[in-house]
Design brief:
This protein has two domains: 190 residues, Rhopdopsin 7-helix transmembrane proteins; 40 residues. Helices cover 83% and strands 0% of the residues. The chain is globular. It starts with a helix and ends with a helix. It is mainly α. Keywords: Cell membrane, G-protein coupled receptor, Glycoprotein, Membrane, Receptor, Transducer, Transmembrane, Transmembrane helix. This is G-protein coupled receptors family 1 profile domain-containing protein. It comes from Magallana gigas. InterPro entries: GPCR_Rhodpsn (IPR000276), GPCR_Rhodpsn_7TM (IPR017452).
Amino acid sequence: MPNSVFGSKGTKSFLVHLFTQVSFLVITAFNLDRFLAFQQPMDYYNILSKRLVYIVCMMLWIFAIVLSYIRDCLMSSDRVCNRYSQMEITNPVNYIFFFIFLLNLLMIGYNLYFIRFKLGPVDFYKTRSATNTFRKVSVMSGTFLMGYLPMIVWSFCHNYIVDTPADTAFRFAVGLGQYANYLMDPIWYVLRFRECKYQLKLLLYTCKKDKQEDIMRSRTEHFATFSIEKYMR
């Protein structure tokens, strides 16, 4: 990102916005993944593949870069962006992310409702599994969206509260939420995916071959059991 457009401080701000928006879009993809899995499980898992996941991740990054550039460009005084300066008050990127935010709320609400009331657990193991899933979805998605909420509010209010104590408070909340969200991303991934936990354990016990063998044995047993249960449904 050239300094002539945003300046050194602007470049840092752009990167913070970029990482935050990538995190936001990734969480949205997680919620959409669960939503589709609950709505149309057979059709969804038939089309799901590694290649599709890679394509979606690449599209999320491209989408985040484009939106971050447009958003910062609309708030920049550089000549490259002057023709957009009149759009600052009605920045379309704010409405796009507000719409995505609302979609997240709807998908999270449906996912939690489905997990809590529609799974119909039969035995203790399934009840405990559903409870753990409910907690994970609530904590991960809920925490991130609450951290992103100040940015949504500030994006619509900052033109009306400039240079006021409320503006300072909102800026602090927005910055805190942005940094906290993308710093917490690796933790969310580890909590959500069992494979991440196994890989992290292998990394921690790099010098202990016997411990690594135990971890790999546990990993093989877990995924073998998962595959058997999946095909017995």
